[in-house]
């Protein structure tokens, strides 16, 4: 049989294998590069998120401090409005700075969008640092009359978060912001006379008006009409000054400003350089609905003990308990478009403004009002009562009823 000879074919493809290996190597390099870029992008996004959280936390701290500063009532240890006198403290007294020393710091954690705060926090850093947080304080600004709110915001998992070393900030996790706050008085202007009356004004029995202070030029009575006086009443001005200088009656300027008949809004704006509506809606003003036939003294005193100083009584009020309303160091503003009746013998410190004011008009009591009284439509005062102008009391009232607003252009992002 014939034999068939076969030959082996030589192996091929080694070159292709090399090319494939080279392509795989290039692909691996590309994947590693893209993975590195992804990791860097992820880290950059994480850093940006943490930086944004820190900035927003600091901004929240500034707004929170301004809000707490403009809350007139006492606050508890968690910076919430106190419901019991013993549980709260005066936030402004603790946190407003002196001329050279910053006020106490306060701070909040923000777990899940809620607030967990401490007032004052004494640079508290919180053992649990898994939530964003801020620490804020008020510092003096020399010669400007303003204060500077300084807030340090921290992202989660950043410890510590305090203001001990503001110049050593980890910019990835912390942000420092500040803004100037200026005080704005709720009552920019105050009456110069013990009694300002734009309507019917009567002094009965042994009632008296007094202003022996040079600040008000000794003006005891300022009226748009004639002040009707019983023979035993007294209108007293500066010692040694002629009695005629103690009162200004039938003042056409006051009559024009108040309108005929007297308009509460117009008279209030004329005397206090503030609208009655703005006073009523201010966050510093406490609204109390007092029945005109029941004594409202206890309700006002309770709110006063919790730090409130400005009151709006839409339906008027009766004060007849004989106990003090306000104090020389913490006077009040009682404002109503209705009737304000004072019976018995209470001491009242501050400003009274009402459409009608009746002070011991029928009970023969001896109320003592220190500050100023304003009546739009009718003022009747009898018994042995006295309305006396007190500039110191009025100035304390103006200082205690100030709001704080941001000064435009004062925002900073560096210590």
From TrEMBL:
Keywords: Membrane, Transmembrane, Transmembrane helix. It comes from the Bacteria. The keyword Transmembrane helix applies. It comes from Hydrogenophaga atypica. This is Type 4 fimbrial biogenesis protein PilX N-terminal domain-containing protein. The chain crosses the membrane at residues 12-34.
